[in-house]
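Consider the following input, taken from an annotated entry for GDP-mannose pyrophosphorylase A (Neovison vison).
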Amino acid sequence: MLKAVILIGGPQKGTRFRPLSFEVPKPLFPVAGVPMIQHHIEACAQVPGMQEILLIGFYQPDEALTRFLEAAQQEFNLPIRYLQEFVPLGTGGGLYHFRDQILAGGPEAFFVLNADVCSDFPLTAMLDSYRHQPHPFLLLGTTANRTQSLNYGCIVENPQTHEVLHYVEKPSTFVSDIINCGIYLFSPEALKPLRDVFQRNQQDGQLEDSSGLWPGAGTIRLEQDVFSALAGQGQIYVHLTDGIWSQIKSAGSALYASRLYLGQYQLTHPERLAKHTPGGPRIRGNVYIHPTAKVAPSAVLGPNVSIGEGVTVGEGVRLRESIVLHGATLQEHTCVLHTIVGWGSTVGRWARVEGTPNDPNPNDPRAHMDSESLFKDGKLLPAITILGMASSGTRAGENLHG
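Applying the prediction step yields:
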């Protein structure tokens, strides 16, 4: 028996994803046509022996989240529950706080996945690796170039045994080109080190607060408090993957993740990809079109386009490398490139909306997406264009840059 835990964070996180996260919890933002965390849930549901999926976070259980969970339970025929933290507890605090729920039924092991990653989720391969060599912590790792590795948790492994000998979160100098993907497989024994951190936090807090009610005791950072402390002690191992992987920290990285997932659909969900049909729009590359969208036959779509529910795409529209969200309208002869068109927005006829992508270096197979903030040194950095909810660009010939 197996379980999975998806860490979805809370509204105090994901600030680089604004303004899109103002309208919907970031984990529900559609990437390649489905909510971001549906990709995680689909991967977990395919693992043999999966009995339950738990979401842990600090979001209020609003209507959108409740509706998504109900639909996901029906679609995947699995119990999928949301466990709300009373305060933000870090990447490991929620696991310890809800340990009884996670261990109920006696699972052999449980997956832990961060919601803001895009991956092909090689969970079955991780499970095979774990069963061949059981240890409390198994981390999914991939390679990055030397410069970008500084932005991630870095792993030094024993190349023969794959034991993690050293772990540093976002080091100031180069440590290793193997980085932490934020996808794990833990044994029930993995909760013991979390308990030790909690008890140590309690003791430290009592020294500062004689009441013993210090609220920070429950905050546990998996990376710094557990992985760094236990590396080299025979408890943490790494499973390396060369599959797709990216973080989704900013709106630009959501567009890049959409491109990766649309490419994956060729193998995993070919039914989600639009086909070129006589009398239909011209499809170039991988394109997702929601069944309720209305697309004019003279439109040219792709590559790497996702069109949401109730969208209207007018005659002569050119659309590529973009996400068009629920209820948006692209009027006749608009050109939309490297853009996220917000919910209910309108792009007027003959308008041109073009962003500047910040894609990984295509000549470096180990390059990853940089998830920088929109501003640096007081200046707006080049980025994709985001049209917020119910906005419009209607002036003929308008050229909007992000």
